[in-house]
Amino acid sequence: METSFPSDHTPAACRAREILERVGDKWSLYVISQLSDRTKRFNELKRDIDGISQRMLTVTLRGLERDGIVSRTMYPVMPPRVDYTLTPLGRTLLDTVGFLIHWAEEHVDEIETTRALYDTRVERFHTPE
């Protein structure tokens, strides 16, 4: 598969980088992935995304909602119920997000080995100041 990458420095490219910062961060990728099959409540997402804090999940969901990728529905019941779902725009990211997560899972051992070799090499040649 051949992919061409834009090389321009236009205002549109700068705005695109802002969007990539949102959808490309690790927590957004996992939120989008978790919402791929159905609507979920906040606590479901928190339980299903290992290592995410309540604050980080809140920040991530707000950013994704602001960008139109996630929809938030609040129900006036006690206790309050809030559901999150992917918007049609958010659903267009599913193939890409799934590919990235799959790639990371497939190559995690290789990358960890390479990191360890790099760290050993850097430590050996590091001279304390």
Q: How are the secondary structure elements laid out?
A:
Layout: H1 11-24, H2 26-34, E1 40-41, H3 42-48, H4 54-66, E2 70-75, E3 81-86, H5 88-91, H6 94-125
Antiparallel strand pairs: 1-3, 2-3
Approximate shape: globular
Widest β-sheet, arrangement of strands: 1-3-2
Mean pLDDT: 88
Please give the number of β-strands: 3
Q: Pick out the low-confidence regions.
A: none
Question: Oligomerization state of this entry?
Answer: single chain
Number of helices: 6
Helical residue percent?
55-70%
**Euclidean distance between termini CA atoms:** 47 Å
What can be said about the biggest beta sheet? 3 strands, antiparallel
Using only C-alpha atoms, the radius of gyration works out to 19 Å
Beta-strand residue percentage? 5-15%
What order do the SSEs take from the amino end to the carboxyl end, as H and E? HHEHHEEHH
Structural class: mainly alpha
Summarize this entry quickly:
The chain is mostly helical. Helix content is 61%, strand content 11%.
What does the model show?
The protein is mainly alpha-helical and 129 residues long. The chain is 61% helix and 11% strand. It has a three-stranded antiparallel β-sheet. Helix 2 (26-34) runs antiparallel to helix 6 (94-125). The longest helix has 32 residues, at 94-125. The radius of gyration is 19 Å and the shape is globular. The termini are far apart. The model has no long low-confidence stretch (mean pLDDT 88).
Descriptors for this entry?
61% helix, 129 residues, mainly alpha, globular
